[in-house]
Write a structure and sequence with these properties.
Elements: H1 4-11, H2 35-42, E1 52-54, H3 59-83, H4 91-104, H5 108-122, E2 124-125, H6 128-132, H7 141-147, E3 149-150, H8 152-165, E4 173-180, E5 185-194, E6 197-201, E7 209-210, E8 217-224, E9 227-231, H9 237-243
Helix pairs in contact: 4-5, 4-7, 4-8, 5-8
Length: 253
């Protein structure tokens, strides 16, 4: 997926975010974290323990605002279909509601895991270029479920909406845009807070991992129902950078 042009525009006046090394399936082993970082991640309102700064303007903010308007329209459609399945004329809405139904039958981590797995299985990976003939299209959940295909941000957006309708509080839901420093590509995941800990719901894996257990990504932006913000690096990120092996910073997705 290609967030690079939008990120450059949004971050032109901002200091570059510092890297947090969080685990990948191929990593040789966990990278030690300073106590300050661990404490920040354990006690935070945001994934990865970093403060956020709202984006006041820019292409990335405009893209999210356009999508947010579509999400409002689709929430009305989903609510109507949820209340009267027999009269619902949208197969995409019924498919998404079936996943939401299964999530509602569960609680806690099981609810998050059910929706994460179900959305991952319902959508096949496909690039925006292959689907739309252009790069970096943020599709709404019903558009994604109509095509049954999407890239990482499409999975993340669908999970964000499904989790909210399944009963997860808006304060406990995020979409996080990351940069994978090993693979050299940008990536989006849904994030949900459970018992004070943020779990990453990733289309690349069925298992959910905690933000403090992630490796080799740089958190860049975070989205919730109030809008989109840029992550602000903390001074302690320099300690994390110093602990990171120089040879592992090559680019790959």
């Amino acid at each position: 997926m290609n967030f690079l042009a939008l990120m450059r525009a949004s971050l032109a006046a901002a200091a570059a975010s510092a890297a947090i090394w969080i685990g990948s399936p191929a990593s040789a082993g966990p990278v030690a974290q300073p106590l300050g970082l661990a404490a920040a991640i354990e006690d935070t309102a945001e994934p990865f323990g970093l403060p956020r700064v709202g984006l006041e303007a820019g292409a990335l903010r405009d893209k999210w605002l356009a999508l947010a308007r579509k999400l409002e329209d689709e929430r009305v459609q989903l609510a109507l279909c949820d209340g009267d399945r027999e009269r619902c004329v949208s197969p995409a809405a019924l498919s998404l509601l079936a996943i939401i139904d299964q999530g509602r039958l569960r609680a806690g981590r099981a609810r998050l895991g059910e929706i994460n797995r179900a959305v991952n299985l319902a959508i096949r990976p496909a690039s925006d270029l292959a689907q739309y003939g252009q790069m970096d299209v943020w599709a709404s959940p019903l558009a994604t479920f109509e095509r049954r295909a999407g890239d990482c941000e499409d999975y993340a957006i669908a999970k964000f909406v499904a989790l909210r309708m399944a009963g997860i509080a808006s304060d406990d839901l995020r979409i996080v845009i990351l940069h994978d420093v090993v693979r050299g590509e940008d990536h989006a995941v849904a994030a949900a807070r459970l018992d004070g800990h943020w779990l990453m719901l990733d289309n690349q894996r069925m298992a959910m991992i905690q933000d403090s257990d992630a490796r080799q990504v740089r958190p860049l932006f975070v989205i919730d129902e109030t809008g989109i913000s840029r992550y602000q690096a903390l001074p302690l990120m320099a300690e994390v950078r110093a602990l990171s092996p120089e040879g592992t910073a090559s680019v790959n997705h």
